[in-house]
Amino acid sequence: MATPPLSNEINLVLGGEAGQGLQTIGLVLARTFLSAGLHVIVVNEFMSRIRGGSNSVTLRVGTSPVRAFSDRVDLCVILDHDALARLRGRCAGETLLIGDPKIFGDAAGITALPLHELSTRIGGSLYAGSIVCGFIVRLLGWKLVPLETALRRIFSEHDLLEKNLAAALLGWDSGAELNGHFPLPLGETKPDRLLFDGSQAIALGALAGGCNFIASYPMSPATGVLMHLAKQAHDHGVIVEQAEDEISAINMGLGAWYAGARALVSTSGGGFDLMAEGLSLCGAIESPLVIHLGQRPGPGTGLPTRTEQGDLEIARYSGHGEFPRAIIAPSTPEEAFACAAHAFTMADASQSPVIILTDQYLLDTLCDLEPFILPSTVPVSRIITTSAGYQRYAPGPDGVSPRGIPGLGNGRVCVDSDEHDAKGRITEDFETRTSMVDKRLAKLRLLREDFALPPHLHGPTDYRKLIVGWGSTSPTVIEALALVRPELTAYLHCVQLYPLSAALIEFLSRAERIIVIENNATGQFARLLRAETSCLIADEWHKYNGLAFSVEEIAALLRKEVKL
What we know:
Layout: E1 9-18, H1 22-35, E2 39-45, E3 52-62, E4 73-78, H2 81-87, E5 91-99, H3 101-104, E6 110-112, H4 115-122, H5 128-139, H6 145-154, H7 158-174, E7 194-196, H8 198-208, E8 213-216, H9 223-236, E9 239-242, H10 246-258, E10 263-268, H11 269-274, H12 276-285, E11 289-295, H13 312-317, E12 326-328, H14 333-350, E13 353-359, H15 360-364, E14 366-369, H16 430-441, H17 444-450, E15 456-458, E16 465-470, H18 474-484, E17 489-494, E18 496-498, H19 502-509, E19 513-518, H20 524-533, E20 539-542, H21 551-563
Parallel strand pairs: 1-4, 4-5, 5-6, 8-9, 8-10, 10-11, 11-13, 12-13, 16-17, 16-19, 19-20
Antiparallel strand pairs: 1-3, 2-3, 2-14, 7-14, 12-18, 15-17
Helix pairs in contact: 1-5, 1-6, 5-7, 6-7, 8-9, 8-14, 10-12, 18-21
């Protein structure tokens, strides 16, 4: 049998029920590929069930960096009947299907992996995942070394590790007939390379921004940020408070900033709805605040474990009254880290709320990346030492007053949710009301100019067609553009969604045809662009079934656009 030519990429999909360890298998394989010097992205797709249902994990592995979700399936390991029916549409004629004869019998087109028999021999279904991993490594034509390295990193208890190593060897032996079926070359191992998801990146970015307090009520998909900061609490001096609800969480965050902390609140759409009054309070008392909003489909409970970009408008318009805010939306773990750190600088400088808008896809997707560049100095705090006669809302440049905190100096730090004068005392004087509204709104200039995050252009600078997007769709659009290569077409990735920067408006003004792509049904960012810039948007590309865009889907849209 001739040896197949080496490939530079493989798409591997695992399908099965919740409780069958799909995510653990995905993590072990991701660590294996990292140990082998390759690049990987792991996309977790799961139902909101502890047991049962039909879930999948897609691993895209390559010799070059991979950052986008692909529908293509080269190898599909199916652990139950429902998975086969559900994933069949993604599989092509050349897809290698692997299944247990105990489940599928001698069904045509399914290559046998006697998983039940092998796991019973080694000690039970607990070790089935390592058998699958060993089998896959053999299909790649590798020895077990990268997998053994991964298992040693994940399993520290001696007996458990030895059992999993034995299970991996059993799976590797079982794949002898398919040795090298998907020959993938080993790369140069880089021990310092990280395997991170978006939740970890947001949490570490918050630490880099000086975060020392988080108050949140758990809500998928934003809970991961709370969990990762809790793990770092002891080493970095972070106070972690699991509040009784989201109303308490945002008020705790405001109280922490008032006392001099740098606080983060992490939630999802339904929890953010409950925070609306606290957000308005934040605007009234001119407090800094950083809110992480991890989007999932609504309305109501919606699809709690799926992804969507449906919460831009609640981030923009929540909270009664008019006050400044900023909204930033990272697209990758690296950008999530940088945006989270920058959010604290923006909030502290403008004394306004800053919302980090992510989604389930970004938060739960693993990929390999270079180590983050950590700040060399402690973030600068703009808190002052107050003197007698201190006025919390005294006039200042761009509407920003000197910010004191209780107990630091001799001044009294008085804040109030009612309209107030410069001292923070309640007033209903009409001229004072007008001046205070103007003072608060003047801070938008800082958010729009001095501390704004600029958009990034990908493609020719002399473009005629401009595709505009935001958040986690960006890496997928960028890869699809490189694949199709339409003439005079560029992509504009918008990091800061509000307030819009002058740079973004300039990019829009140079385009003859503008297309906005969003993971929602109604085009929320397109609507904001029209309202703020009066730009003409020729077309909108939407997806809102709970899944992220794939490279193939966007490539098809691009090819259709080329034919217009």
